[in-house]
Design a protein that fits this description.
Blueprint (H helix, E strand, L loop, with lengths): L2 H17 L3 H4 L2 H24 L5 E2 L5 E2 L17 H8 L3 H5 L8 H14 L1
Antiparallel strand pairs: 1-2
Helix pairs in contact: 1-3
Length: 122
């Protein structure tokens, strides 16, 4: 089970605990305590899973480039740092994935660099 499936399962568990009580039970102290315990354990589980979430750029299971918002500022292309193309190269992404992050119009330097790399592979 991957991280996102684990988070979804924990969320489902938390929602199920809240949905299974009748309106009368919501006012019962024993049910409230039980729900508080379930809520606390589910929230602890979500917290544990979130802390496992990668903070460094990485390639996902399908080879797609993922750059988390809380990554090192070096990789935050949206703040003017290193381009996704350069990060994809660093991570050893497939040619297809690199093509997704390079464009002659938006970043001509990266595009020219990519053309040289592709020609050298031939």
């Amino acid at each position: 089970m991957n991280l996102w499936e684990e988070i979804a399962q924990a969320r489902t568990h938390l929602k199920s605990a809240a949905d299974n009580a009748t309106p009368e039970q919501h006012h019962s102290k024993s049910v409230t305590r039980k729900h508080d315990q379930v809520d606390a354990s589910a929230l602890a589980e979500l917290d544990r899973l979130i802390k496992r979430r990668p903070t460094a750029p990485h390639l996902d299971d399908q080879g797609g480039l993922r750059i988390p918002l809380n990554c090192d500022p070096k990789y935050r292309w949206w703040q003017g740092s290193q381009s996704p193309f350069t990060t994809a190269l660093e991570l050893g992404a497939s040619d297809e994935e690199i093509e997704n992050h390079v464009n002659e119009i938006f970043n001509s330097d990266d595009w020219r660099k990519w053309q040289k790399i592709k020609n050298a592979k031939k």
